[in-house]
Amino acid sequence: MGDIYVVAEHRKGEIRDITFEMLFKARELCQTFSGRLTVLLLAGKASGFADELAKRADRVLVFEDDRLETFNSDLYKEMVSRVIQEEQPFLTLMGHTSWGMDLAPALSITTGLPLATDCVDIRESGGRPVVIRQIYSGKVFSRVSFKESPGYLITVRSGAFLPPEDAETTPGEIERRDVPADLPEARRTFVQFVETGAGEIDITQADFLVSIGRGVGEEENIAVIRELADKMGATLSCSRPVVDRNWLPKFHQVGTSGKSVRPKIYLALGISGAFQHVAGITGAGTVIAVNKDRKAPIFRVADYGVADDLFKVAEALKQQLP
Ligand SMILES: Cc1cc2nc3c(=O)[nH]c(=O)nc-3n(C[C@H](O)[C@H](O)[C@H](O)COP(=O)(O)OP(=O)(O)OC[C@H]3O[C@@H](n4cnc5c(N)ncnc54)[C@H](O)[C@@H]3O)c2cc1C
Questions:
Q1: Residues with beta carbon inside 6 Å of ligand 1?
Q2: CATH 3.40.50.620 segments of the chain
Q3: Of all atoms in ligand 1, which is nearest to the CA of residue 239?
Q4: How far does residue 286's CA lie from ligand 1's centre (Å)?
Q5: Which whole-number Å values give the CA distances from 214 to 39, 243, 310, in the listed order?
Q6: Residue 132 burial (10 A CB sphere; 0-12, 13-18, 19+)
Q7: Centroid of ligand 1 to alpha carbon of 96 (angstroms)
Q8: Among the four residues 18, 44, 51, 110, which has the most C-beta atoms within 10 Å?
Q9: Mind listing the pLDDT tens digit for each residue in 299-319?
């Protein structure tokens, strides 16, 4: 068996959470597969990421070059596949993100290694990795095994492995290398980051989400809940029907066709708890549900529940706030 490599992901000067999630899982897998943990960092000159990553891995393999400052699938594919071919890691993990979805299939072609995508768990069987993937919109978990190979590629779903806040840190070594002189020209060029518009929010980063479902009744009622959320310092999210009716933009949507979130508190108002929705809150801390139907499935996943009208509860909460 052997070593595990994680491709670090970063954006706009920050290491993305998916990197720490993969490192947390990879550390556990290193014990299972008796290997060392390397994080591969491709970044701009003096990115400053290596020290932070060295706390979570045995080795940080760093290539810093201005051409690598932003993700470029041509250059990243070239660099990562050269590292894989030279060092032959047993397992290479990437995020199932816009980076990984672009990079991983191309790497599988160039290296000839098998790839499993969008995995929510990685286990071991017979000395090989076995991955768990969700199919049929999260209704069924499938177990996927690989044919024997010298190495394996896996993309990991964001939020599938959540490191505890006090995750163990280890002082790893930092190995800096020069970008190969014969690195080909990229066919694609990074132009700019385009924000999705004024008022854009990132529900995946929120600590406290107040989430509304179809039970809110009509668009006009959203203002009441928005006001409550603002007062509580929470971010507004929603279920899919709210987006389908154009009551809120898509970036508010939680679930399999929306976003996976992991707030400390998730307050679900008028959400039934369909599996496509609940699949997006598996990483949430405390789930509080308000639904007038006491048999609503959301109560099965809620830590606290109120079987009552959501507007009554919203009003009562508002009264408690300054
Ligand atoms: C391929 C696919 C992907 C999908 N992806 C997603 C996804 O990413 N996210 C998602 O959310 N859904 C998704 N869905 C839809 C999902 O199946 C459900 O239809 C949806 O989650 C239901 O949303 P809801 O709970 O808001 O509405 P409903 O199921 O209609 O539930 C509304 C709830 O509000 C309660 N209620 C009504 N009035 C009040 C009131 N005044 N006070 C308190 N409670 C009240 C009702 O009792 C009910 O339980 C997907 C479906 C498919 C087929």
A1: 137, 213-215, 239-241, 253-258, 270-272, 274, 276-277, 280, 290-293, 296, 309-310
A2: 4-177
A3: 11
A4: 20
A5: 43, 10, 11
A6: middle
A7: 26
A8: 18
A9: 999 999 999 999 999 999 999
Q: Where are the beta strands (DSSP E) in the chain?
A: 4-7, 10-11, 14-15, 37-43, 59-64, 91-95, 115-125, 128-135, 140-145, 152-156, 173-177, 208-212, 235-238, 265-269, 286-290, 304-306
Q: Which fold has domain 203-320?
A: Rossmann fold (3.40.50)
Minimum-distance ligand 1 atom for the alpha carbon of 296: 49
pLDDT tens, residue by residue, 22-56: 999 999 999 999 999 999 999 999 888 999 999 99
Q: Quick one: pLDDT at residue 138? A: 63
Cα-based torsion angle of the residue sequence 212, 215, 217, 222 in order, rounded to the nearest 10 degrees: -20
- Domain 4-177 superfamily per CATH: HUPs (3.40.50.620)
Q: How far is CA 71 from CA 8, 76, 123, 182, in A?
A: 11, 7, 29, 19
Among 292, 295, 301, 308, residue to substitute to test ligand 1 (most atoms within 8 Å of Cβ): 292
Q: What are phi and psi of 96, to 5 degrees?
A: -85, 70
Nearest ligand 1 atom to alpha carbon 213 = 26
Q: Kindly report the average pLDDT of the chain as a whole number.
A: 93
Task: Tell me where in the chain the CATH 3.40.50.1220 domain(s) lie.
Answer: 203-320
Which residues are paired to 152 by β-bridges?
Answer: 91
Q: How far is the CA of 215 from the centre of ligand 1 (A)?
A: 8
Token couple for 215: 């039970």
Distance 214 CA to ligand 1 centre (A): 6
How does strand 208-212 pair with strand 235-238? Answer: parallel
Residue 266 identity (one-letter amino acid): Y
Distance CA 20, CA 18 (A): 6
161-198, pLDDT tens digit by residue?
878 777 777 889 999 999 999 999 999 999 988 765 44
Cα separation, 225 vs 232, in Å, equals 10
